[in-house]
Amino acid sequence: MSTLSPLDGRYASAVSPLVDYLSEDALNRARVTVEVEWYIYLVDAGILPGEFSPDEREKMRGIVVDTAELSEIEAETRHDVKAVEYYLRRRVTYPDIVHIFCTSEDINNLAYALTIRDAVHRVWLPAAKNLVGEITELAYEQRDQPMLSRTHGQTATPTTLGKEMAVFAWRLGRQLDRIATTQYLGKINGATGTYGAHVAALPDVDWITHSRLFVESLGLTWNPLTTQIESHDWQAELYSDIARFNRILHNFATDMWTYISLDYFHQNLAAQGSTGSSTMPHKVNPIRFENAEANLEISCALFDVLAATLVTSRMQRDLTDSSTQRNIGVAFGHSLLAIDNVTRGLAGLDVGTETLARDLDNAWEVLGEPIQQAMRAASINGATGMDNPYERLKDLTRGQKVTEGMLRDFIASLGIPAEIEARLRELTPATYTGLASKLVDYLGE
Length: 445
Description:
mainly alpha; Fumarase C, Chain A, domain 2; 2 domains; two-stranded antiparallel ribbon; 21 helices
């Protein structure tokens, strides 16, 4: 079958779990759910006459959406929610109650809130948490593995591989905490949010209380002040948080790509696949991380548009949100695909310990920093001969190859107190990692 979107074709298997929540069919199922629950609520609360047996409630809540029939109805109504209303009228005991005391946006805003919430908590968050868990596990495993840092792409103070992985796990985890606590807002208050028709028809009903109770019965947070639409601010907040997660993950993907190019990680040929280049048989390309970059950029672009557009509606209502929200699934799909790519990419990596050790052993100049700081501290504590430490280390190290012997001779020439000299002489680039290993423990807090 030909498809316009790669999410429905090439990448369908990776994003298919989202279809149950963010497709058009899923939206219609949610609309039916909201309509049915409002229908039951009005009767059970005594607002409208009638009575349902347990079997009737179960039957109504079990109504299946026949996509073909619903499409035929919509072809006549030219209105998606009106089609849902007519579809239900054919299947319930009191058809006149269906879609009473609500407008299409009352149904839509609640349906979107339910589907987005379930997509996040049942699909996106579990995948994202699993990935962060993999990065966290790598951080703990490699907490003691020394690695040369490359600030500005240049040789810099060593760290540990685990600590660098922990930085990303920490950053990503913070965003997941924000996303996990998102409030999903909803409203059911009529054509302009005033309960005007409700009060005109049944003035003695406490409509505000019933609106709140119904929204909360769906597991959503009630929004008391809206126009015809629920303002979508919670959506904008959620999409901004997911876009931020995406961007941090993009940073992780580009760093991993660079570490692979430096041979700090080897790609496991069996895990990554046998073909890297169509003409260069020696190559295994870091395609998982590259694909993740592209999908994260597309996802962020869509989430940015969603967040910027959905917070604006002319006066009491315009329809820009209707078209915009139909792309929510696409934005989530590209993010989920990227998460899958990075997860698979990580599974195919081995640490290049030999390269890490070799790079450190060729970077004795990085010890200029601790020697300088030790000189300054000794001078403050009364040692003599410690003048101009930065300048002296710059003359020794900048623009030239520094060897272990050169540094040892420099340390010996300082006349620095014996215990400090002994400590500096024991330093190597591989042991100059400070508290990097200990910092990984903060992932558990």
